[in-house]
Design brief:
The protein is of the alpha/beta class. The protein has 2 domains: 177 residues, Vaccinia Virus protein VP39 (Rossmann fold, 3-Layer(aba) Sandwich); 72 residues, Helicase, Ruva Protein, domain 3 (Orthogonal Bundle), CATH 1.10.8. The protein is 35% helix and 18% strand. The strands form 2 sheets. A 7-stranded mixed β-sheet has the order 4-3-2-5-6-9-7, sandwiched between helices. It has a two-stranded antiparallel sheet with strand order 1-8. Helix 8 packs across helix 12. It is elongated, with a radius of gyration of 21 Å. The chain starts with 30 loop residues before the first strand and ends with a helix.
Amino acid sequence: MKDECPFHPSSFSLHPSAPGHRPSKRFGQNFLTDKSIIKRIIAALNPLPGETIVEIGAGRGALTAPLIERAGQLVAIEFDRNLIPILVDAFGAQENFKLVQTDALIADICAEIRPATTARVVANLPYNIATAVLQRLIEQRACLTELILMLQKEVVDRIIAPPGSGERGYLSVFVEAYCETEKLFDVGPASFRPAPKVWSTVVRLKLRPKIGLDLQEEKLLWQVVSAGFAQRRKTILNNLRSAPSPLQDRLKAHGGASIVLCRAEVELQRRAETLALDEWTRIVRALG
């Protein structure tokens, strides 16, 4: 069992208004300052002694302090080089703290957490790159088991949109394939500095390492889904007929889009947002 920490988060200098540092519009920075929301996020994550937690976008350290106290090891990823000295000054002396200055879009998290083989992630993601970072995290599901993420509310609405919803899109299907999703709570603009113009939502994503398709079928699945949502007003048939190569060549080799959809038992006049995940996988298998 981990020894009790000889410090308390209140002893850390969290630099809520660090001299010389202003939130960057380029990086889409809105720093979480609401202590009640911070507590709710930590409670949802519930870091355990001995486990490794990855924090993406450590910022000024609002979440970092309680994470260091409760987690066995904290790997903090921060891209803004101007925030690195602030984080080093506040937390650098802690043995269970590792700071990585890199872009979350290219970070090799599985390598950064070693010698641990698995980790969970917590993050308040910038709105301008949230979707790309989420997809990058899911791609690293070999070592990640759970994500607790703060995202723009409309992004979460798209993620959890069921078949038939007008908000359902490529991201909905992608996340559904690899994650069990639970919407936790909404967060208002007043909880941030500077305050954004939109609401945020905290969501829990439990990652599945596999989805029942082999690697080649997985690649084909996302080609099909991408083509299916290419033009939302068109039917799945017309979108697949307009699919780019090499998917178009694959469809023609199996008799064309209409024959493939018939084999998958998907009605030709349906639109992509009405299809469930198992129907997308049936289309892929009809191309096998």
